[in-house]
Amino acid sequence: MGRRKKDPSCVMHTNASKQVLIIGAGIAGIATAIRLRLAGYQVKVIEKNSYPGGKLSSFKNGEFSFDAGPSLFTQPHFIEELFELAKEDINRYFSYQKEPITCTYFYEDGTVIKAYTDKQKLAGELHEKTGEPAEHIYRFLQSADRLYSNIGIFFLEQSLHKLKTLFKKNILAALATARPKFIFKSMNSFHEESFTSSKLVQLFNRYATYNGSNPYKAPAMLSMIPHLEFNIGTFYPKGGMISITNALVALAEKKGVSFLYNQQVDEIIVSNKKVTGALVGGQKIDADIIVSNIDAYFTYKYLLKDDNKAKRILKQERSSSAVIFYWGLNKSFSQLGLHNIFFSNDYKKEFDHLFRSKQVFDDPTIYINITAKPEPGLHAPIDMENWFVMVNAPAHTNQAWHDQLFLYKKNIIQKLNRILGEDIEPHIICENVLTPADIEHKTASYAGSLYGTSSNSKMAAFLRHPNFSSTIKDLFFVGGSVHPGGGIPLCLQSAKITASIIANHE
Ligand SMILES: Cc1cc2nc3c(=O)[nH]c(=O)nc-3n(C[C@H](O)[C@H](O)[C@H](O)COP(=O)(O)OP(=O)(O)OC[C@H]3O[C@@H](n4cnc5c(N)ncnc54)[C@H](O)[C@@H]3O)c2cc1C
Hints:
Blueprint: H1 8-16, E1 19-23, H2 27-38, E2 42-46, E3 58-61, E4 64-67, H3 77-85, E5 96-98, E6 101-106, E7 112-116, H4 119-130, H5 134-156, H6 163-166, H7 170-177, H8 180-184, H9 187-194, H10 198-205, H11 225-232, E8 235-237, H12 242-254, E9 258-260, E10 265-271, E11 274-280, E12 283-286, E13 289-292, H13 296-303, H14 307-313, E14 321-329, E15 339-342, H15 347-357, E16 366-369, E17 385-393, H16 401-420, E18 428-434, H17 436-443, H18 460-463, E19 475-477, H19 488-503
Parallel strand pairs: 1-2, 1-13, 2-9, 6-15, 13-19
Antiparallel strand pairs: 3-4, 5-8, 6-7, 10-11, 11-12, 14-17, 14-18, 15-16, 16-17
The structure holds flavin-adenine dinucleotide.
């Protein structure tokens, strides 16, 4: 006799009596709250800051507004899915547009490459600027598509720590696609085999930084990342990245999730190896289920006081961090687009500085995001621009960041002046700064890592912390420091995996 299916209305009814506490209103915490509320649970989100979103937040400086963290939006279907699930019209909360150019790349020798999302235009541009045959581009993007569709989806969309995953039929198909070169070669070696132009090797190596990794160490498997931009697209949320947070919080509140701000969870209370609640400002809040959306290391170290487990988590290398200058400029720069990269002349040395010597590098790759480009007059006064200027930085290990900022700024300005042929400093009329120490402090992200752990090791996908605790009943994890990793789309997938484990009692 087959197993009887549970009646969904009965399941909703049972869940309704259960109280879920989510620690942290990062993007994964908010998405988990929506999913569990829709499955019938009573859901409370506790956030230490006065605002939601964690890294995905924004701020103003006079007439300029800035997205504080993420600036690149890919895979919008993970957001759409939440509205479909909630049976709400997304257009009433959120809208976005596809961008025709993923990024404009500037090299020190004066070469400027516009990376079009239209593949024919892209191949034409790359051939014209670097001499790379178009077939190489098409072949590379096809390989990225295959890697993502066959392997990526399998590893990213389900828990790797449940036995039933490992017995799924499609694991064999997925593993068969994982040719040894994608596991044993580095991204850089694979790109050197794929392209004749060193400029394109550098351009595609850059995708390692999308999860804070080093292309000279990370496995070639990560060369699936460009698939997301070139085969699917990059998008711009109207109103800036903060609109993602605002839309999801509005949806969560509409469905009955409650958010408590300015409240820090100090301890997760465990009795007989099961969570029973959390201590917030000396008061116990009861909970049947707890989902931690904060860094797994901090969860063990401070909320569970488990030093041994915390130390074990630290065995995995952290992703890189960043130093960010938010500048308001009293001028508009026609050479620039929404996303811009000014490449280092020595990329290998830059990554050695980031991951080995952990020092400031004098020729850093600079990323500039300008939301005044798609929405002139909204984020900066007309004819002025809001620049989010980011350089990768080593993980925070107690460096004196404020003493080093002078060097970071000097190197950035010299490089931009050189390549743009202008003196930009007199045009900067306001400035805010974010260092790796600030990122750690503001979002409780250990070492200021942007994406949790790095993917520099071949086993990284398997070594990330699971979405559940195997020793404490009803304790779960979501967000950038746990499976499947950092970045908005992966955080949204961690919410999906975790909510499914909880709601289906897997
Ligand atoms: C500068 C920067 C640039 C980035 N660029 C991109 C990009 O372009 N595209 C992209 O997809 N991703 C990008 N990322 C990564 C992306 O922002 C993160 O992976 C993602 O936002 C992490 O979300 P999260 O759910 O893990 O929670 P987080 O954003 O880490 O939020 C955790 C929340 O928990 C709260 N909290 C911590 N401790 C407690 C406590 N004890 N009690 C209560 N609350 C607590 C924090 O205040 C915070 O709000 C970037 C990150 C940074 C920092």
